Amino acid sequence: MHSVRVRGIYTTAVTQLLSENGLDVVQASEPIRERFDDEFQVAPADVSIETTRDRQGVSISGPSEAVDAVAAELESVAVDAFRWDAAAPRGAVYDGEIIETIGSGAVVDLGDGRWGFLQYDDVDGYVDVGNRYRVQVHEPTPPWDDDRPLVRPEIEVRTGLCRLTRGESGVSAAARGPRGNELVGMTDLLSTDVPDGWGLRWRHAAAEADLEAMGNGLAHVVDRARALEADLEAAADGPGEPALIAAPEATTWVWFGRESRFALDAARRAVENTMPGHHRTKAADRAASAAVDFVEAVCDAAGDDEDDAFPFDAVSRQFGPTTGDRLTLGHGKPDGRLISLGTGKVTGWDPDGSITLERQLSGGGTYDALGVPKEAGDVAVTKLREGRWWYPTTYRDAEGTAKGTYVNVCTPVELFPDCARYVDLYVDVIRHADGTVEVVDEAELEAAVDDGLVSEALAKKARSVAGAVERALSK
Q: In angstroms, rounded to a whole number, what is the distance separating the alpha carbons of residues 4 and 415?
């Protein structure tokens, strides 16, 4: 049985799902311990699950086999959940070379088309192009994020209970006061010794650990440090040419679409009062988390009926988008990339979850599939509706004459405060200015299925939606 530590806005739902499927959740936070009848051990975690900074999904890090088992459970939560392996996983060690200095840090070539970001404050001395460092990935980034993984020269191994840092010495604790002093003092009583050349720091979770749990945690992290040390010693003296030196962990990303968030609501509702659209609302804005917690705390009946509608009206009025706001079309791709199709102004809003977005376009080139030229003064009018598997964009010239309509088939649209999010499913429907309607890019969808980027179930849904749209536009 793999042990898992979970943190972030999806914690309750993920804990419920993993527990139902035989995975052992450890180091649970106080709110989680209060919500579940089960006791949670304060023990080392094989796998760490953390919500991404933009709240769109989760990272899963740990040994490859354990990560695969956990990711498989979360990937299956609904048809619009996507999974991607990190190119530069957490804890991986690389020899890297500075290729550009920007802002507060430098871009590091890690080899094989991988790049990282090194902050100047993490390095002694002046950083310049051509400098080489042996670095470790401390904060990987999801494929839909423009940021590069954060790397540092500091080499460490960590679990939820403690951390070993290479090149340091001594024992310290994150907890302050008597408990922190106690953790430091109790270290001498443990049967496992801290390796020479490594410094030990007990993390906050260790404050609730007993002596047995501390011993297990230290033994776990020492075993991993020794394995990493062996990999580093086997590598040539460095830093050398950009290349991977060691990858003690794997990292996988799971992105949740709208249906996935509502499936997670259902899992959470099994153990805790959950309003309709709990995870959808929390993913919209950090400030929304406190609002959702407040509603669920004071309204005992909130969310008892899982068929209740998502309160788009209230959420969008409070956090956006609404009339006059600026909104970006966040065009996700099944390989994990996020492409902006431009930013426009919300010119229409309806409490049922519909908005109209207008974008001013510049000239040059042609509109995909429509085959008509883009001209200065053209306007793109996009109709978006929360939860719908498609959305149309009509292109008009400066006089208002329609040049054609492009209907994008995608995972259910989510209208976040500053960005409409979905994953494109390749197949689309177009209506030409003369009224001719056709389905396009079906071959691209088939290729994505063959490549394992889109599941057959999701592809079937995309074909069904495209067919329905085609019939509607042909009437």
A: 32
